Amino acid sequence: MREGLGRMARVRSALETMPSADRQEVLAMLDELTRPMTAREVDQALLASGLSRADRKRMVNALKGLSILMVAY
């Protein structure tokens, strides 16, 4: 089975053709985008939903142990 239908090879090829400075910026951006959110970040993201503090705390506790990358409501 091919990984993502060759996605890894395409990404690697694209990165290899980039200038070093651009490659470093792209990799830093990807690191930030794929970094799991902290409990505080999840709580802050849920703040805009209008949930009470107690409900947000329960939600954050329920999500502990999961790698949350983004919160949308």
Radius of gyration: 17 Å
Number of strands: 0
Q: How many helical elements?
A: 4
Helix content: 55-70%
Content of β-strand: under 5%
Q: What coarse outline follows from CA principal-axis ratios?
A: elongated
The overall pLDDT average reads 91
Class of secondary structure makeup: mainly alpha
- State the major sheet: none
CA distance, first residue to last residue: 35 Å
Low-confidence stretches: none
| Helix-strand topology string | HHHH
Topology:
Layout: H1 7-17, H2 20-34, H3 39-47, H4 53-63
Helix pairs in contact: 3-4
Q: What does this protein structure show overall?
A:
The protein starts with 6 loop residues before the first helix and ends in a 10-residue tail after the last helix. With 73 residues, the chain is an all-alpha fold. Helix 3 packs across helix 4 (53-63). The chain contains 4 helices and no strands. It is elongated and about 50 Å long.
List the defining traits of the structure above.
single chain; 73 residues; mainly alpha; elongated
Give a quick rundown of the structure:
Helix content is 63%, strand content 0%. The protein is built from 4 helices and no strands.
